[in-house]
Specification:
mainly alpha; Peroxidase, domain 2; Peroxidase, domain 1; 2 domains; two-stranded antiparallel sheet; 6 strands; binds protoporphyrin IX containing FE
């Protein structure tokens, strides 16, 4: 499966004209499904977002794309980073060219209503070319009063349009059934859209604790990777002493703590040691976590955590600290690794297992490990992990030398 990214003007989802620029809504449906699945969106969320998003606004392709200036990267400093200068723009929307498709989706494109469904399901659609030469779907037959008005001159009306991805919502049987459910229950559609929109715009903000302001929803949502707060009042040194006397080896202690921490992504603040999700599916079965060794170590650490009133998450981190302190001592150095308690343990019910698949480490230079051979070099992959974990240059060199 290809990346599914658009090939035109930096659109972020799929090519609106069809896969490889060839209109075919059934094929496009598969790319839409794949692209949105990578954002942890299921079919219902995807249909709600596409239909809801395209209820308002319009596409822009009323002119010759060849007349546009250079793209932002190639344009001169006088464009102030904007690029795509349009000599015919006149300060209005009428000659705007962005995607190359031209037209609105609904009769009232400035109102959030059920107009997208009325239009898509109320007409037969045929392929036409926009003024900029892009493939778009237009109704075979439509009453004049059902057409949207021109964005700049309300006395003129134009045909509405559908992208290939919009047509996928009608042609693909699963999306079709979902759209019909929405049409029969507009309140359900609005709620599904609102939830999916909130998810789309907040998924990369990390844990809910990072939200601020009066509009923060009270409800916990599974995609926020909720983790309950853990105890901070247990006897840390007693836990460390038990770990030190448990018979687990330094590599077992350190590797488990590292594996628990290394899923952390600074890009969206997912993963990491908090929650101790390394003991849950899917992480407990990932090849990089060496499931047999992991199960052995957890079988020792979990009872220690329970007896002390500490979270397993904290106990795994402490195990790493004990391992490093032991190794340092063997080399003649007496050190104490700093520690802050309070991590919590997530349950399976708090874990959107499928959305964790994308965090699976398939390479880890810090453990000298590659799941398979990749086109990128091991050194580049190591830098990628370093950057994702938010390690600075000093942080990286320190951790590789300990
Ligand atoms: C299914 C994949 C999608 C495709 C292929 C797609 C494609 C497009 C295209 C080609 C345009 C016209 C851009 C232009 O010419 O200026 C557009 C505009 C727009 N899209 Fe999407 N889109 C998708 C999903 C979404 C989603 C998920 C949302 C939000 C929930 C959304 C909201 C909008 C809005 C509001 C506009 C109008 C912008 C304006 O009026 O300037 N789209 N989309």
């Amino acid at each position: 499966m290809s990346i599914g990214a658009a090939v035109q003007m930096g659109l972020i989802y799929v090519n609106p004209e069809g896969v490889g620029g060839k209109p075919d809504p059934m094929k496009t449906a598969q790319e839409v499904r794949e692209t949105f699945a990578r954002m942890a969106m299921d079919d219902e969320e995807t249909a709600a977002l596409t239909a809801g998003g395209h209820t308002v606004g319009k596409t822009h392709g009323n002119g010759d794309a060849a007349l546009l200036g250079a793209d932002p990267e190639s344009a001169g400093p006088e464009t102030q980073g904007l690029g795509w200068l349009n000599p015919k723009q006149e300060g209005l929307a009428n000659h705007a060219v962005t995607s190359g498709l031209e037209g609105a989706w609904t009769t009232h494109p400035t109102v959030f209503d059920m107009g997208f469904f009325d239009m898509l399901f109320g007409h037969e659609w045929e392929l036409r070319k926009s003024p900029a030469g892009a493939w778009q779907w237009e109704p075979v037959d439509i009453e004049e009063e059902d057409k949207p008005v021109d964005a700049s001159n309300p006395s003129i009306r134009h045909n509405p349009i559908m992208t290939d991805a919009d047509m996928a919502m009608k042609v693909d049987p699963t999306y079709n059934a979902i759209c019909r459910k929405f049409m029969a229950d507009p309140e359900y559609f609005k709620d599904t859209f609102a939830r999916a929109w909130f998810k789309l715009t907040h998924r990369d903000m990390g844990p809910k604790a990072r939200y601020v302001g009066p509009d923060v929803p009270k409800e916990d949502l599974i995609w926020q990777d909720p983790v309950p707060a853990g105890s901070t009042s247990y006897d840390v040194n007693a836990v460390k002493a038990k770990i030190a006397g448990s018979g687990l080896t330094v590599p077992e202690l350190v590797a488990t703590a590292w594996d628990s921490a290394r899923t952390y992504r600074g890009s969206d603040m997912r993963g990491g040691a908090n929650g101790a999700r390394i003991r849950l599916a899917p992480q407990k079965d990932w090849a990089g976590n060496e499931p047999d060794r992991l199960a052995k170590v957890l079988a020792v650490l979990e009872p220690i955590a329970k007896a002390a009133g500490a979270s397993v998450a904290d106990t795994i981190v402490l195990a790493g600290n004990v391992g490093i302190e032991k190794a340092a001592k063997a080399a003649g150095f007496d050190i104490e690794v700093p520690f802050a308690p309070g991590r919590g343990d997530a349950t399976g019910e708090m874990t959107d297992a499928a959305s964790f698949d994308v965090l699976e480490p398939v390479h880890d230079g810090y453990r000298n490990w590659l799941k398979e051979d990749y086109a990128a070099s091991a050194e580049e992959l190591m830098l990628d992990r370093t950057q994702l974990m938010g390690l600075t240059a000093p942080g990286r060199t320190t951790s590789s030398s300990t």
